[in-house]
Fold:
Amino acid sequence: MPQHAIQQLKSYINKHIIGQQGLVDRLLIALLADGHLLVEGAPGLAKTRAIKILSEGIEGNFQRVQFTPDLLPADLTGTEIYRPQDGSFKFQQGPLFHNLVLADEINRAPAKVQSALLEAMAERTITVGSNTYTLPELFLVMATQNPIEQEGTYPLPEAQLDRFLLHVFVDYPDAKAEKAILALNRDEAKSSTTNSTTADEQISQAELFNARQQVLNVYMADNLEDYLLHIVKTTRKPDVYGEDLGNWIEYGASPRASIALDRCARAHAWLAGRDFVAPEDIQEMAADVLRHRIILSFEAEAEGINKDTFIDTLLSRIAVP
Structure:
C-alpha cells in the first residue's frame, strides 16, 4: 500500500535526521504534491543531509550542485559535445537530468543560471539550442539559502520564487535532539557500513506515483475550499480585516498559491492518515506556501513586521468554517 510505503520512507529518514521533523514532513509533502521547495537556514542544520537521505529511500538518482557566481547555465542543463571522429554533436546531459536535485546556496548564482533552473522547475523541460529535452517524471528540486551571509548573492526573482511549492525555514534543534545527534554521529563514525538502503528497502517510483493519486483524491469540503481560497485572495486586499493589514502588504499571492495550498493541505491530511482535509491542514501549510509569494510594504518593514507575522495575523482574523 502507498501509505505504508511512505510511512516506511518517513521512518527511514527519521532514523538519520534528528531534530528537524518539520523539514522532513515538508520534504515528503513536496514529494507527494509534485513540487519543489526552498529551504532557508543556517549552515549545519541537516538541509543537505535531509535530501540525500530522502534520495537513498527512493528508487531514483540524486545530484548535488553547488551554486557559485561563476556557474554557467550549461553547468546545469548540459551541452552539445563535438565528436571529431564523425564531425557530429552529441548532447551531454547535465545534473538537472536526475530525479532529486539539490541546488545548494541557490542565491549565489547569477540570473542567467537561475533562469535555466526556472524552465526546468516550471516546464519540466530543458532547451539547449533548438532542441528541447524532457526531464524525468519524478523531478524534485530542493534549493537552499543561507540567511546569515548575503554579500555577493543574487536575490531570487519573484517569478522563480513563485515556482517553489514551499519556502521552509529550519531552526536549531533543541538540547535533547542535539544530544541524540551526537550519539548518531558517533554510531555512524564507528560503523564500517554505509547508511544507504538496499533495493528492497527503497520505495519504487510506481508506489510514489500511486500515493500522489491518493493524495489528489483526499476529500475537501466545499466550505473548506472556499476558506482556502479566501485566505489566498485576502493576501491581495487584506484591509477588509483591518487597516493595519492593508498597510502591511504591497503584493499578494497569485492563483498558483491557491493551487499549492490545495495540494499541500491534501498531502498533509494524507500523511496524517486521514482521507479528508481539516481546517488545521490548511492553517499548518499556509505560512510555508505563502511566505515567498507575498511582498510586504515599506510601512511593514519599518514597523518590524515580517511575513510570518502578517500571515499569522491574517489567519487569526479569518473565521474558520
Q: What stands out?
A: Residues 255-271 form the longest helix (17 residues). The first strand starts at residue 37 and ends at 40.
